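Work Package 4 report. The design task specified in the project plan requires that, given a folded chain encoded as structure tokens, an amino acid be chosen for each position. We show below one input record used in the internal validation round.
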């Protein structure tokens, strides 16, 4: 991702469950505040990719492919809402929407109102056949992780699973700031770590 001539220095990929308590806490207490601290997304330091699939499983039922989610059908619906939001909204709006959604325990009515006319497009997407291909793509990326995702959520830093942590056990801000420092750059958001 390019931002004013810079390439984002650190890529984060968050594999999460829209109804998972650990995922919700991580997004509301660590990741989204970090995004805001760096000035939102996109920015020259971090790029965030959200993967709303979690520990879901694909099953064949009467010849039809169905996704079964860890926290039941409501989570599958919310994952679809998040997936459609990620496809329709600009990255800064998608991050704010996901934060709003998990913070309000997936009561998306107020969150969809905040994105105005795009809220209707998200609703239409969730009801359309294209949502299946959106979720299948998230599922493929999640299922192809090496090593496999054993926890309810996973954050990858960099280009691979070699730098992964369980969400509830990390202080991501410090890790990112140290990585930025090690790359010879400085970010105002990281002043306390220099």
């Amino acid at each position: 991702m390019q931002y004013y001539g810079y390439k984002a220095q650190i890529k984060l990929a968050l594999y999460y469950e829209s109804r998972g308590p650990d995922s919700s806490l991580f997004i509301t207490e660590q990741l989204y505040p970090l995004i805001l601290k760096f000035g939102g997304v996109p920015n020259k330091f971090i790029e965030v990719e959200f993967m709303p699939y979690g520990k879901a499983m694909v099953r064949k039922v009467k010849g039809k492919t169905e996704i079964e989610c860890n926290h039941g059908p409501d989570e599958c619906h919310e994952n679809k809402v998040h997936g459609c939001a990620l496809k329709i909204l600009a990255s800064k709006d998608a991050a704010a929407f996901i934060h709003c959604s998990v913070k309000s325990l997936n009561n998306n009515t107020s969150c969809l109102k905040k994105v105005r006319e795009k809220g209707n497009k998200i609703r239409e997407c969730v009801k359309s056949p294209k949502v299946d291909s959106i979720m299948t793509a998230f599922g493929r990326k999640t299922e192809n992780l090496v090593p496999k995702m054993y926890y309810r959520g996973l954050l990858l830093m960099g280009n691979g699973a070699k730098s992964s942590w369980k969400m509830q056990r990390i202080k991501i801000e410090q890790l990112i700031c140290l990585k930025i420092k090690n790359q010879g750059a400085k970010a105002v958001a990281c002043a306390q770590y220099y």
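The CA atoms of residues 57 and 68 lie 5 Å apart. Validation will be extended to a larger panel in the next phase.
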